[in-house]
Amino acid sequence: MAKTNDEIFSLRNLAMDRAQARENLKIDTAATRERLKPSSLVSEARNKATQKVGKAGQKATEGLKAHPVITATVAATAAMIAMRRPIARLIASQKKSQPDQIEE
């Protein structure tokens, strides 16, 4: 048993610290349970993915603004690649409709 006032005061402080630690543990455990629920995990993953996509889009936009000539060249090349077959069909159909003429 504690004999001096200092020992009693010290034990009382330890008891209060223990009670506070238990309360903090209860709060932390409840927060962890909530965070580990599947709906919370999905929501957190969705938010992180949205942030990453937003940052990537912003970075891409800044890159486009910083290099407009390269952007235009890449866009024109992509358009030509995408339109290659329709243009070839158009040329082929016009050749079929106009027979070759022999010059004399």
Quick structural overview:
The protein contains 3 helices and no strands. It is mainly alpha-helical.
Description:
The protein has 104 residues and is mostly helical. The chain is built from 3 helices and no strands. 0% of the residues are buried. This is DUF3618 domain-containing protein.
Quote the average pLDDT: 88
- How can the largest sheet be summarized? none
Low-pLDDT windows of residues = none
Order of helices and strands: HHH
Distance between the termini: 128 Å
Number of helices: 3
Shape: rod-shaped
Task: Decide which structural class fits the backbone.
Answer: mainly alpha
State the share of residues found in helices, binned by percent.
Answer: over 70%
Give me the count of strands. 0
Beta-strand residue fraction? under 5%
C-alpha-based Rg, rounded: 37 Å
Structural topology:
Layout lengths: L4 H31 L2 H29 L1 H30 L7
Keywords:
single chain; 104 residues; mainly alpha
